[in-house]
Specification:
The structure holds two protein chains of two kinds. Chain A has 15 helices and no strands. By secondary structure, chain A is mainly α. Chain A has a single domain (42-334), classed as Orthogonal Bundle (ABC transporter involved in vitamin B12 uptake, BtuC), CATH 1.10.3470. Chain B has a single domain (2-334), classed as ABC transporter involved in vitamin B12 uptake, BtuC, CATH 1.10.3470. Chain B has helices at 2-6, 9-21, 24-38, 45-70, 78-99, 104-132, 137-156, 166-173, 182-200, 202-212, 214-219, 224-250, 261-271, 283-302, 307-334; strands at 176-177, 180-181. Chain B has a two-stranded antiparallel sheet with strand order 1-2. In chain B, helix 4 (45-70) crosses helix 13 (261-271) and helix 4 (45-70) packs across helix 14 (283-302). The chains are: A mainly alpha, B mainly alpha. Chain A binds chain B through residues 77, 131, 135-138, 140-142, 144-149, 151-153, 155-156, 160, 266, 269-270, 273, 279-280, 309, 311-322, 325-326, 328-329, and chain B through 74, 125, 129, 133-136, 138-140, 142-151, 153-154, 157, 263, 266-267, 270, 276-277, 306, 308-316, 318-319, 322-323, 326-327.
Chain lengths: 335, 335
Amino acid sequence: MTDAIFVSKAGADRRRGLLDWLLILSLPLLMIAMELGVYAFEPRVLSLRNIVNVLNQSSYLVLFASAQMMVILTRGFDLSLGTTVSAISVASALVMTGLAAAGAPDFVLVAAGLIVGLGFGALVGLFNGFFVSWLGINPFVVTLGSLNICLGLATTISGGRPVFNVPDVFSLLFYNGVLIPGLSIPLMIAILVCLGLYFLLNHTVFGRSLYLIGNNPRAAYLAGLPSKRFLGLAYLACSLLAAFGALMLTARTGSGEPNLGGSLMLESIAAAVIGGVSLQGGVGGVGAVIMGTLFVTMLSNSMDLLEVGGYIQQILLGCVIIVAIFLDRLRLTRG
Amino acid sequence: MSSLDVHPAPSHRLYRAYARFGFLPTVLVILVVALALFVPRFLTVQNIFNVLRSSAYLVILSAGQMTVLIVGGFDLSVGAVVPLASVVSALVMVWAKGVAPDQTAIIVLLGVLAGIGSGLAVGLINGLSVAFLKVSPFIVTLGSLSIATGVALLLTNGIPVYGMPQAYVNGFGRGLWLQLPTAVYLAALIVALVWFIQNFTRMGRYLYAIGGNLQAATVSGVRTRTYLVLAYLFCSVLAAVSGLALTAQIGSGQAVISAQLTLESIAAAVIAGVSLKGGVGRVEMVTLAAFFLLILTDAMDLLKIDPRIQTIFLGCIVVLAVALDEVAKRRASVD
């Protein structure tokens, strides 16, 4: 099965014309053009400091977009991602501040935060995965339900207020500590996660199966793949990645925020789709997610530097999403 | 399933008829009786009045959402069309009042036309993209959601627009006909219209055919593209109408109206048994489901349940309703 996918890919390569290459390179070319265009008005955009800044900012979104990709590959999506992030941020912050107040040592604080955060993520993932794969319910409905549940939990357990005083050791470990000089911890984590995901998607049965499940669920079933289990696992992986991102964001803000995930659901889907992960399932990868994330982050960074207002940024992001899906459509029909 | 086999034929037929309507009417009746018995303030005139009025907006919105779901689509942008229509109509009315202060009829007419026009514009973008460029409705409407929200905020800077003619606010928005809010009549009229279209017109049959099997509909000579565009236009126009009615009640144009509108409209449709795969859905059931959701919300308000916990509850109900529906359908198909 793995071979079949590679063979068909190689076959398509041979027939690629100039237009196909332009379509494949459209996003990188667009990014370069955008940065050069902005440079003409605002030279700071290409300064080392700004580039490092963009990379650091991207390291959070890339996690959420990869999470989203895991389920989009199987023709699903996860609407609950944003509110899951909020709920995890609040829950882990509450546990850590509570333990810190009780005088627990640092390693206990961090371990408790991680366990609560990842455990909560696993619960959400199992909930989504159970209803989508075993009961065969549309992912839109299931994750719409868990969106509301997590939103309710995030605001209830925090009383709607931020949870301050997350222990410094947690922020040190996941945000502002220095392990390798010149490389921020979030960026390092993002790189490691991307490498891990690349391996998972390309060199394991589970990863390859996700593509087949998305491409042709019936064929996957007939091929004898444990489709239900893999589909459920995809949702679990999605929520775990989101949980990890939530913990990193909590470390950055230094507080548990009930509104932390506000726009993350839309941004994560947008980044994945702009990068070329197809909502029809079975198309996409870590590279696509990285490109999409960089594009979205660069766009908002450029507009911030040019002092474009937030409302216009929102309109432009909408336009970009629509244009990206047109390009995706062109790529698919030509492929 | 096995218990059904031993039943004689007539009760089997009864069960079939019951299954056709689903469990929603039963649940609704039980809910209303239980509330009437146990929650004293539920059966007061004021409370019924409130439930009817707030249901009216959701009924209008969900009827539109249902139309798009029937053709196998999605419309995430309704939640942004409501505030957009609100802002545009209010701005146009304020402008027209400045030009010709005495011509109330013309001022209101211009405002209403502009509001509906803004809905038409969004619907046209959605419909054309889905029908002619064949891109995923999820992404297109995600894009137009972002664009419409941005435009509404840009036009007003997020500040409410006051100064609409009093006749519009007091006569239409807060007015009563035969003791009932005008919005209730508007909703009833729209439901009747949609019901008529669904049951007695060629367009209604075609919409089901397109959602059931796009290919088959095209081959049978249905102009699928035209009808797809019409479905999206219809949905956006209904969202705009809902926005106009809300604006008249609030008395000002608002760029920020409940963010949950899109999700609520989809939840109502889904609880009513509208299939997200297309081809299935009836407006009378959607109306009942909208009532169901708002009666439930109202009951929780009366019981002084924290709105945050209500969110969790609603999330569970959406998932459970669909899970039950799915299980029932499987039984029916085994039968």
